[in-house]
Write a structure and sequence with these properties.
The protein has 146 residues and is mainly α. Helix content is 58%, strand content 8%.
Length: 146
């Protein structure tokens, strides 16, 4: 296996673990990511679409499905009524915090078979990758990470 192949399989391992955690909360990975993205503050739909690499239409459909469960809500921006803001409902915020905490606790399990030094190296490299990646929206420095 070459380096790219290993990174591909690492992404599969991470996505599988994330999907398992999300399923335990009766959420799709996309719904969980959306909730975590708006758990602390409302976000502009256009910025969310860009941050999550989704078309506006795909994001709107995801928001519709998540709003039907009363986990998120839309509102017009106070500054510009054309701008749609998305925020977590109180129930959505509680669920997002629970998902976020569980992901933060259990995702590191993917490295459980590494020795302590390798686990520290893995954490250091993962941190460096995230810190040098463009994961924030154009108007916020808050990373979109569950």
């Amino acid at each position: 296996m070459d380096y790219g192949d290993k990174l591909f399989w690492l992404s599969v391992v991470i996505q599988r673990k994330y999907a398992q955690i999300c399923a335990e909360f009766d959420l799709t990975p996309s719904q969980a990511t959306l909730l975590c993205a708006v758990r602390n503050e409302p976000r502009q739909m256009a910025d969310l679409a860009a941050s999550l690499s989704m078309t506006k239409n795909a994001l709107s459909q995801l928001v519709d499905r998540t709003a039907r469960r009363e986990l998120v809500g839309r509102a017009s921006s106070a500054q510009d009524r054309r701008v749609v803001m998305l925020s977590a409902t109180p129930t959505g915020k509680v669920l997002a915090e629970a998902v976020y905490a569980e992901v933060a606790k259990r995702l590191p399990e993917i490295a459980r078979n590494l020795d302590a030094d390798d686990q520290r190296d893995f954490e250091r490299v993962a941190t460096a990758i995230v810190n040098t990646s463009d994961l924030s929206s154009p108007t916020s420095n808050q990373p979109i990470t569950p």
